[in-house]
Every structure is written in structure tokens, then in C-alpha cells.
């Protein structure tokens, strides 16, 4: 007997709240950097640092999600089935 767990889906309100919070914080940091009494190269450095921080955060979130999905029983069963199919596949066997 196999038991499957239903995939948890985020509500539309949660997704909207996350997107709005990200947008507000990103615009806010941009305005903050622009308003600082600094030279152009210093503002550029801070802007590039923020951009790198945001992109690396997205990458880290994806890696953590992928590791979590790979650790689930369902993910491991799918991986085992795929490995079995690939090991049994003979590309030189004609099906005629």
C-alpha cells in the first residue's frame, strides 16, 4: 500500500504578498542608495552588491527547495524508476 502526500500549494494571497514585499524592498533599497551622499562609483558598488545579494538569495532558495524535493520518498521513487528505465533502454534495439 502506498501513501502519497498532497503537494502543498501556496495561496494566491501569499504569493501576492511575497511579490509585493519583494518589490517594495527592492525599490526601497534602490531609493536609499540613490539618496545617499556618495560618489557615483560608491552607489554603483552598493547597487551591484544588492543585485548580487538578491540573485544569490534566489539561487539558494532554489537549491534548498531542490534538496527538499529530492529527499522526499516520492522523489526517490521517481528517481529509481527513471534509473531503471534508462538501464533497460537499448538504443540499438530495433522495434520493427
Structure description:
This protein is an all-alpha fold and 96 residues long. 75% of the residues lie in helices and 0% in strands. The two termini are 38 Å apart. The model has no long low-confidence stretch (mean pLDDT 86).
Features:
96 residues; mainly alpha; 0% strand
| Tally of DSSP β-strands | 0
What separation lies between the terminal Cα atoms? Answer: 38 Å
Q: Helix/strand/pairing class, anyone?
A: mainly alpha
Largest sheet: none
Report the uncertain regions. none
Percent of residues in helices comes to over 70%
What topology emerges from the helices and strands here?
Layout lengths: L11 H24 L4 H32 L1 H16 L8
Helix pairs in contact: 1-2
Kindly summarize this structure in a few lines.
By secondary structure, the protein is mainly alpha-helical. It contains 3 helices and no strands.
Amino acid at each position: 500500500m502506498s501513501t502519497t502526500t498532497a503537494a502543498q500549494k501556496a495561496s494566491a494571497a501569499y504569493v501576492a504578498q511575497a511579490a509585493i514585499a519583494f518589490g517594495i524592498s527592492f525599490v526601497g533599497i534602490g531609493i536609499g542608495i540613490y539618496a545617499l551622499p556618495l560618489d557615483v562609483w560608491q552607489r554603483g558598488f552598493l547597487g551591484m552588491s544588492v543585485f548580487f545579494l538578491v540573485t544569490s538569495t534566489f539561487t539558494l532558495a532554489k537549491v534548498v527547495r531542490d534538496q527538499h524535493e529530492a529527499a522526499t520518498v516520492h522523489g526517490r521513487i521517481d528517481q529509481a524508476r527513471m534509473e531503471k528505465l534508462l538501464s533497460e533502454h537499448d538504443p540499438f534495439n530495433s522495434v520493427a
